[in-house]
Every structure is written in C-alpha cells, then in structure tokens.
Amino acid sequence: MTDVPALRRGLAVLRVLATRPGPISAAAIARELDLPRSTTYHLLAELEAAGFVVHLAAERRYGLGIAAFELGSAYLRHDPLERLAAPLLRKLADRVGHTAQLGVLHGNELLYLVKERPSAPETLVTDVGVRLPAHLPASGQALLAHLPHAHVRALYPQAAAFVTRTGRGPATLPELRRALAEVRARGWAVEDGQVTRDFASVAHAVFDHNGRPLASVAVTFRHVCESGCAETWPAVAHEVGTTAAALTRQVGGRNPT
Known about the structure:
Elements lengths: L2 H17 L6 H8 L3 H13 L3 E4 L4 E4 L1 H8 L5 H18 L2 E8 L2 E8 L14 E3 L4 H7 L4 H7 L17 H14 L2 E4 L6 E9 L5 E10 L11 H17 L7
Antiparallel strand pairs: 1-2, 3-4, 3-8, 4-5, 6-7, 7-8
Pfam families: HTH_IclR (PF09339), IclR_C (PF01614)
Keywords: DNA-binding, Transcription, Transcription regulation
Protein name: IclR family transcriptional regulator
C-alpha cells in the first residue's frame, strides 16, 4: 500500500468502528470495506500502535482506542462549544444558586472548560483548566456511564489508574462499573465528598449527533456528610438536565436511544 491509499483505508476502518455500538472482529471490518484480511490486520496493527484502536484479544474484536476518543472530544475544547455553553451555565447557576461547570474527558481525566458562578458563590477548588480523575467527579461519571464497556476498560487498565483524593469513590474497575450502572439507571450522576470534602455535585451528559457523550454539565455545592450519604438531589438534577439538553440541541446532538 502506498501512503495515501493506506491513510484512506485506515480512516475507513475508524469510520466503521465509530458507527458500531461495540467492538467488532477484523473479519467483519474486512467484509464491510471489501479489503483482504491481511490488509485489514495490517491497518489495525498500525492504528493500534498509534492508540486509535484497541484490540480485545479475549474477544478477538477491535474497538476505538483512547487516541480516537481524544481526537473526537478535541472539538469540544474549541471556542464554539464554550461560547454556546457559557450563557446556559450562567442561567443555571443563577437558578440553582450554585456554581455550574462544563467538563470534557481527556483520557481518564475530566477537564473543566467553563465555570459560571452565582451572585453569592461558594469557594471551590476546581476551576477552568483544572483536571481531575474522571471516575471521581459527577461530571466524569456522567460521561463514562455512556461509553462502551471496552472504552472504560481501556481508560482504566490497571489499579494504579484509580487514584483517590478523599478516600471516597470507586477504587476498582468492578466498583466503577457498578457506579456507572447506577448513573444510567438514575439518569444523572452524583458524587458526595469524592473530590473535595464537604462538597457534592450533580451532573448530566451532553451528547453529539450520534448520541455519544461529548461533555457534561454539573453544579457543585456545599454538603457536609461524614458517612453513609445517599442523597441524589433530583430537583437540582432536573435543572442540570434541562441545561444539558439545551446544549445538546445547540450542538446538533441527540440523546442516545
């Protein structure tokens, strides 16, 4: 293969993987693109080496890798998204009386892009440009909950990825999966003291035109809870969800089916 046709075929492989709900076999990719299997395996090996594809050896399937996800989410770090989100977050902060933030995934970290405070804000340690372990804040869990299982596994390949800040939050992949299942069942993400003691947050995901998670809208507020907390703040979640849905519409997105 010369460079240009190989590039085109590699991009075609990524498009096939991007349109599937989960990992698929090399044979299925070869059939879809009418490529020889040897060529398909060569392309997959190169894409895997660059981080755009992950090979699930036990399942004999391939899925999108972290680099592909980061490339796609890079769109969200451009001014258009921030300009669209800022006025919505400003109104949200005024309605609920708490700080509102927009976050995106960057690998297994949550990066804050926009922060809007109410007229009488509470002091927060998070700010624009701050990165947090994605499995701890509600903003991160709201996004992780809507990723394929293989993507989450690729983001957390070993125990060292589960860093902690306050001793609370998922510490293993099974614990994280249970937490994300609760997010999907509830409809929104919550965390209480996992990022900063005596502060809690509620978050909803924002989706792209394919129904994939692109960003998250969250509000953070003081909540003193020593242990055994089970608050989910449905009234706050309703307001956050309304804002997330409005931003989803503005970016041309749709909720996943």
